[in-house]
Amino acid sequence: MSAPTSATVRTWRGLAPRRRSKQGPRLDLRLLAPVALAWLVTAFAGLLVDVAVVWCAALLALLLAGALVLRSGWVVAPGATRRLIALTLALSALLLLSAAAQRTIRTAGPVEGLARSGAVVTMVGSLAADPRPVASSGDRGGPVVVVRIAVDSVVGRGVRTQVSTPVLVVGPASAWAGLRWNDTVEVVARLAPAEPGDDVVAVGRPLGAPRVLGGPGAVLEAAEDVRTRFRTATGHVWSDARGLVPALVVGDTSRTPQDLTEAMLATGLSHVSAVSGTNVTLVVAAAVWACGVLGIRRRWRPLVAVLVLAAFVAVARPEPSVIRAAVMGAVGLLALSTSRRRAGVPVLGGAVVTLLVWDPWLARSYGFALSSAATLGLLVLVRPWGATIASGLPRRLGWLGPVIAVPLAAQAVCAPLVVPLQGSVSVIAVVANLLAAPFVGPATIAGVVVAVLALAWPWAAATVAWGAAVPAQAIAWVARRCAEAPVVSIPWGESAWHAIGLAALTMAVIVTIPWAWHRGRTRPSVAAAVVLVTIGLSAPTRAVAWPPPGWLLVACDVGQGDGLVVNSGPGRAVVVDAGPDPDSISRCLQRLRIEAVDLVVLTHFHADHVEGLAGVLAEWPVAEIRSSPVRDPPGEAEAVGRLAATRHTRVGELRAGQHLEVGAVAADVWWPARRIDAGSVANNGSVVLTLHVGGVSFLLAGDIEREAAAAVLRDVEADPHRWGHIDVLKVAHHGSGNRDDRLLDHVAGRVALISVGEDNDYGHPTPSTLAALDARGFEVHRTDLEGDLAVVSRDGQLAVVSP
After folding, report:
1. Is residue 17's pLDDT more than 50?
2. CB–CB of 109/154 below 8 Å?
3. Are 523 and 621 in a shared domain?
4. Residue range 516-537: average pLDDT?
């Protein structure tokens, strides 16, 4: 075997952190392990275990750390290992003490006890963040917002108590959306307990509109004035840029179009439109560069940077996420400094510990984990990777090396953390970030200039706004085009083991790339083999990824209609309704790799449930069709009969009280028992089924309206044992407002599927239906927003996933 050439050695060193380098100082990574271990201890013990136990654990860790430092005689570990263990114990003790102290302060007073009893209280406190909209509807039929309130006093059961307790309020946007960060309010709400480990003590449902008692103060009022002037200065540019420029500069997403927000989420660009370390780094680096242009002495530049950072935080609002981004952005600046690069990782470790002492609940925040990991990647990987990439480019394009390295490093370190959230690995994020990266800096810096000019010269700010709008519009174009790619992500899995597996695979790729590069240059046959294997693994991505393992039922995205496919065995299915379009249901069955249909159930004869039947009968052998005995509308019922006859398929009926077993599927029929002439005859004649497959129970409610729902309820209450525990609800009539909410109370699993068409003319799902589901704690999934919805069971856990 020939020895590696000098070029190979340089490539290896360029793609992996170097142990020794004559070209620059070696990175100091010793603090990473103690900080990471202390972080995990805080997340899974300090915030979840009983607070008294946390106090004891913190003191014990402190004593052990002291014993190691004093080199107690019973310790046999070598000096370096002993110091590492002592540091880990000391950091764990520090974070546990902070968590225990803050938990003790927060739970002092009656709020926690009042929440356990569901009491109605009057609270006075200040908003800890701006109201944030959520994707559901409120109790009064409108949009819902959530807002975190730092409660100063509470009146419960006639007693007023001074407290320092955070409470999450979930209320209608009509009453809460106009409030701002740090407003002081008084609100009457019914309390409920928070989840263990949450950063709030209770959750409140307001019983009326809040009463504003005070504003955020003069400094923050001035900051709000800057934001308002900024929005005015950018109000005349293109709609995408009008929303993106304020988001890039100060995290103001109030005018970002919803479809653009969804596209940026799908393509991994959402960090661009939030206050992140990247924004802070760009703003402060630009300020330092301006100091050089203006001739400001070097010793004064750190002070200018601090003042700019403080002004940025004030304008962006000093919420926890903004402060976190400011700290990480300041650390990220070290990555741009050759002389201070060695100190970058220790400073990052110190920043993480400081932030966790300030707010221990950041230990359970995905945003904080992603921000920290991205900053670590910036410090450790971007410089060597950028240099290696630049060495392979023409000299005049060498500046692209770091630009390309940034999204590659971010994807490498952040992907294992994102997997538990999304259950998939983005294959378009790197491409989208590479394409968008050249425009982020110009848009952000030009946006800062617009914000400054808007204070004194609005006309100049409006002119310069076009300079920020052009690159911002380019970012929006990248997000929209990449979101339309055939394969945006690869399903991977949501468990901790899936995350660990992805991390191991990422490390293996990083380590083997230098070897593969060398082999590819010296032995082209090896390179060709690697390329072929890669293509072979990636080409059938969609076929391998869908259907997901363990799928039980899929709500197909057939538009405004119903088309459900139930797994009755390998390659076999029960189809419940076929949607309005033969091609849509046919494509869904093909993606699920169905070979035969054991049964087709037509809940009723409206076109949006039966028109797609032709697609099923044309391409799959169908053993039997069962339908509602209520043959209304008669024209559609006759058309179904004729179509079945041409395919020689038997047609039967389903009535209340029947029990079916088809392969792995068992079903009980609850309706129809009779014809109801009130309301829609066809809808109230829908077949209502409870299905049992793979240990999971489903309620398929067809299109029943309140009259049929009331009849079903009477039967359920008469025979609750037969009804059993329902895990998943297929919401009736695409989320129509004509319903009986009492039926929702008999669904224990709190997972709801809504099969509905995008931008339909009926207003489905209605705000009142979404409000009823939200009030009962349902996890709602919609085909118009997510596409095909698969209910899967993995290791006893239920989940809903989409391609």
Report:
1. no
2. yes
3. no
4. 59
